[in-house]
Amino acid sequence: MSASPSRPAPRAASAPAHRAGPAARAAGAPRRWAALAAALLLAATAVGSPAAAAAPDPEGGTAKLRKVLDEANRGFVSAKTQLTNSQRREKQLQQELRDLAGRQERLAGTVKQVAARSYRSGPLTGVSMMLESDSPDAFWVRATAMDRIFQLDAARLAGLVDARREIVRAQAQLDGEITVQTKQVAQMKARTTEAEQALIAAGGGGAAGGFLPGNSPLAKPARRNPDGSWPNESCNVDDPTTGGCITPRTLHAMQQAKSAGFTRFVSCHRGGGGGEHPKGRACDFAAAKGGFANVDASGGDRAYGDRLAGYYVKNAGRLGVLYVIWYRQIWMPSTGWRAYSGGGGPSGTHTNHVHLSMQ
């Protein structure tokens, strides 16, 4: 707006300043106090406001901790998948062995009957029967019948030998699967120890109560490979939360939570730093309605985070969850819920947002 004509023109910036007299100072004091009060009020509002739109940063923890947790839990999930596949093959082989044992028993009985008949009749009985034929036609009929009997007996003997060979093969495969399972169980235990030791070194790691899923619905399963493992995915899908990129599996997990009623602010891709965010494999879900607040969630906001954390744990195997962090606790497939010490304020301790990392 332009200055009123009745007011003197404003003083140029280069003009020398003049000391105000007592009357002027008294007149300006209320204005200064009002400006100061407004500034203090604005600062207080900025600190306590729950509607900060920026994603939580720093994430908390160290790059080393995140690296160990990532490798340990991916290794655990891989070993568990191989163990599950091996157990499935073991069941199939056990059924195959039972079937082969039954076949062998039946063939063995038949072969015993053949042997008993041959013993009673002797090797020349068949030839004698053909020579006693009344005509050439009868001779060839009997010869053909005897040939069929010999072929059938030979097939039965061959079948018995084949059944026994298959039993040896299936048993060897079964023994191999048991070896695989022993190896994978040991691998899972080692990965669990790695994750626990990393958490302890960071000041956490103790057993924690975790968060129950309540009546959370089951999520629609994400796509898996034929062997049950998770496909390798790159950051090639548009991130609807930040304008960056995320993996298809991460997008699916976020959409499933939204369908389940978790519709508050989310931030996924974040450039720079470590962890899963730059790779498009992590999302942060604000607990407060207005966004990421720089305060510990409480009341309804805390309950919202509890339910969301429980939802992702309940659907971890269906969605491909790597780990979940919420309110000083971390859930991993290798350990379950454990105490987590990320350090720092509400962002680092994850008391204002639920962190989700994906396979």
From TrEMBL:
Annotated organism of origin: Pilimelia terevasa
UniProt KW keywords: Coiled coil
Pfam family for this entry, one: VldE
Keyword Coiled coil: yes
Record field: transmembrane: none
Official protein name in the record: ARB-07466-like C-terminal domain-containing protein
Ranges for domain ARB-07466-like C-terminal: 243-350
Region described as Disordered: spans on this chain: 1-28
Domain of life, source organism: Bacteria
